[in-house]
Amino acid sequence: MWKKVSNTELEKFLTAARDVAKLQELPNFQAILRGLNSQIVQRSRGCRVSRFRTYRDNLWTFRVNCSGTTYTVWLHAEDTDRNPKTLPEIKIKCTCPHWKWGGPDYNANAGRYLYEKPFSNVSFPDQRDPTLQNKLCKHAFAVLDKARDFIIFESQEQERKRVRDEDRTQKVEDDREQRRQKQELRRQEQDQRKQEVQKQKHLRDTERRRKQDLHNKDLQDKRDQRKREQEEKRKKPKEEQENVFNK
Length: 247
What we know:
Blueprint: H1 7-16, E1 19-22, H2 29-33, H3 38-43, E2 48-55, E3 59-66, E4 69-78, E5 89-94, H4 97-101, H5 104-111, H6 138-147, E6 151-153, H7 156-246
Antiparallel strand pairs: 1-6, 2-3, 3-4, 4-5
């Protein structure tokens, strides 16, 4: 189910992935530690924690040695709702007997921070943990305390969703920009047509005024011509009279 990756592959993945938060900043980190049995915290001080394997998608396995006995702890920052904008949640589990029978298995399952399936039948620990304070075993607490500053990267699913969302957002922006460019192009074409119409109108008005001016000039010339002719007609009888008198 989970594939172990080489250091080169892991480095390549972590370089491409975006860091989300530190482990202690995840939503249920403080909730898991709140109300924890203080004896578990004290007993965890003698544990030696070593990271055994690192997997992609924020999954680690640890070897925890306390008093000469070594157990395995799984720690996973799980992307629970597949939402790239939501922080993952801590899931944890230990192979020690106290985890199985002392209350942590029941509490982790009830608190929804259990990694994968429970080891026990998750019956209520009415004898070993009636107050439900054994939220973790000392091995699991030692791991959380050591890993509190681990950097959580987005999971592959989150990365794919983020890329899809970014692509979708980019497509919306591209479509919006295309519509804006088309609107701008239509506006420019409308302005050009409007300018062309105004230009044609100006040319028609200019031609009409020119023709009107020519027509007015022609009318004026005709009026002047008629006026001269009338003048000449008036002068002609006078000249004839003068000639008669001279005879």
